[in-house]
Task: structure prediction
Amino acid sequence: MMKLFSFWRSIATFRVRMGFNLKGIVPDEIVEIDLLKGKQREDAFRAVNPQMLIPALVDGDGPVMFQSMAILEYLEETHPQPPLLPKDARGRARVRGLCQIAVSDAHPMSVPRVRNYLTGELGLDQPTMIKYVRHWQNEALRAFETHLSRDKATGRYCHGDAVTLADLCLVGQAVGSSFFEVDIKAYPTVSRIVDACMQVDAIARAHPLKQPGAPALASH
Ligand SMILES: N[C@@H](CCC(=O)N[C@@H](CS)C(=O)NCC(=O)O)C(=O)O
Result:
């Protein structure tokens, strides 16, 4: 029995959803945590994940798993086919490094709790807050572009010609950026790889806007 705590707009959950689809795993239950209504901060979900963030995953008797990359690594270990990490240690380091550009450094700058703090506690107006988010999105996209365009290990996808965790994180970054009207066309290698990823059905159907409850278009 696999239970995934999820919301259509969540980029971190999108990463995990792509992983599920690529590995052909269908969670038995999807529990919607509506981030726009602040459901992540209610007691019921705080008991599941004290950090009040999605995704969270319960597989069987538990314990609950949290943090998208930890969940993806769990899926990789328990369902090794198709592999989402390269066989060699250097390759794995590169893929994990690319992942962290999005996961550790850029994505946290744009999540609801940070945006709410900037506009609420710190009193930033909406345009200034959006400027802040876009700045960090562009920083990440620029770093991805430089790595991906100069490194021989880049292929059809971020690392060679098979999808890896780096592609899941890059696609998440690109879709998250689109929610803030950051145009990835300015980053040609990023753009090419994201287009290639979107041709993979398991990735395309995991898109936030294809999930139940999603609007036709999303913005900040
Ligand atoms: N590093 C975490 C980030 C999780 C995260 O920030 N999730 C967002 C949705 S994408 C969330 O639940 N935000 C709620 C909030 O900011 O209040 C991961 O990769 O799982």
